[in-house]
Amino acid sequence: MRGVCSLAEPSTLQKKAEIFLEKDVYPLLKNFPQAEKFSLSQEIKQSCFKLIRAAVMANNLTVVKKRLEWLDEADAEKTLLLVLFGVARTQKYITQKKLLELQGKLNELGRIIGGLQKYFIAAASKR
Q1: CATH number assigned to the domain covering 12-125
Q2: In angstroms, how far apart are the furthest CA atoms of the chain?
Q3: Helices (H), 8-63
Q4: pTM score, two decimals?
């Protein structure tokens, strides 16, 4: 079934973003103060959701230009998450060690996004 339905299968980017949300972000946000429940923690969750949405859209569309737009969106959300986790560190909601761990995982997502962008740009220039 692998090659038949490849557009419908989740991309590596989508899978890694989902794992990041489930294994890293949700457990982390449980430790945030109650006062942040509807502000910083909500913003972080929304940004994760938008990153996953952008990965899904980039994976399921067939127009290269649209795919690149969604990859740009995913990259922007990844950058926003870096900023938000920086704020969480400044407010002492997370440790420096945890921040570095999160940055490493976001950098990995960034490398995947960059690789996909290069691939689709090359594919578009061949047309």
Answers
A1: 1.20.1440.60
A2: 53
A3: 12-19, 26-29, 40-60
A4: 0.89
